[in-house]
Amino acid sequence: GQNIDQPTEMTATEGAIVQINCTYQTSGFNGLFWYQQHAGEAPTFLSYNVLDGLEEKGRFSSFLSRSKGYSYLLLKELQMKDSASYLCAVRDVTDKLIFGTGTRLQVFP
Amino acid sequence: DAGVIQSPRHEVTEMGQEVTLRCKPISGHNSLFWYRQTMMRGLELLIYFNNNVPIDDSGMPEDRFSAKMPNASFSTLKIQPSEPRDSAVYFCASRRTGDSNQPQHFGDGTRLSIL
Prior knowledge:
heterodimer, A: mainly beta, six-stranded mixed β-sheet, five-stranded antiparallel β-sheet, 11 strands, B: mainly beta, seven-stranded mixed β-sheet, four-stranded antiparallel β-sheet
């Protein structure tokens, strides 16, 4: 079966660091994506991992451990505009993306 | 560059009516995906096409749903007859295959309400 787990909600303070975890169990693996989705808008691509390790892109970093079926998205120097839902998605060998239900992050001043 | 274009942005109709959602993928993208998003179930893949050919429609909920891609620049998702439980946001996404790190790019979605 296919299963992707993320926390439902998280809160953090402006300027802080937050880590959003994602665990997955899928029948195949061909990369893991993180998307950001503001309320009422489309998901937008943040990061992609296919090999183990950390990928850094400005204030955002994403980590992958394939042996553990685990990824996290790290957001540094949080800003109010980072309040959004963060979706973890695994691509299977048929090119389909399987999405988690998303983590709603609220950043407070 | 234009992104994925979906129409209409909002649709409100009565149950039993036919609903047609439209999508124009990004030029040069050869894979197209239709998703449905609800609070309860999140983002679910309904069907996807590669080079205009349906590859996997296992996510299509039932026979009331159908999708076509007559050419590389246009796709439709049709619901007939529509039911209140079909109310959701429907997203179309496209991607250029052949490069594994290419993400799917999403349109702004169609917010569908069936009364």
